[in-house]
């Protein structure tokens, strides 16, 4: 018997030719296709599967990575706790909704409150299920985290 995959293999990480035309070091998120691209030199990119915000909570635009965190604490924004009063601040660790790593997205000096982060629900990669953040499997977000510099450009479309 063949074991069941944790997520759809079409969302597996792999190296491919760059289709973004962006400068190396740029992150591009294609929310419709549920893919994140990290642009490398020599017209290459790494493609990762992601979960994105559902239609009501999606976000798009340009931002920069202004902070990176390992096993971050989760502090749900006021809008989220108003919708779901049961959500509470959670210390970093394996059960935390932000997963193993987080990239904090800013526009200028203003925190967008959106993140690229890991997840404790990898089976949801490829779906529109979050409150706007970009979720990655923990192994993929660790890989991206190790490649990305603070100040990196992020485009979410």
TrEMBL record:
Magnesium keyword on record: no
Active site: 117, 133
Membrane-traversing stretches: none
GO MF annotation, one: glycosyltransferase activity
A GO cellular-component term linked to this record: extracellular region
Superkingdom of this protein's organism: Bacteria
Single GO biological process annotation from the record: peptidoglycan-protein cross-linking
SUPFAM superfamilies reported for this sequence: L,D-transpeptidase catalytic domain-like (SSF141523)
Annotated ranges, domain L,D-TPase catalytic: 25-157
Pathway the protein takes part in: Cell wall biogenesis; peptidoglycan biosynthesis
Keywords: Cell shape, Cell wall biogenesis/degradation, Glycosyltransferase, Hydrolase, Peptidoglycan synthesis, Transferase
Family affiliation: Belongs to the YkuD family.
Name of the protein in its database record: L,D-TPase catalytic domain-containing protein
Organism from which the protein derives: Chelatococcus reniformis
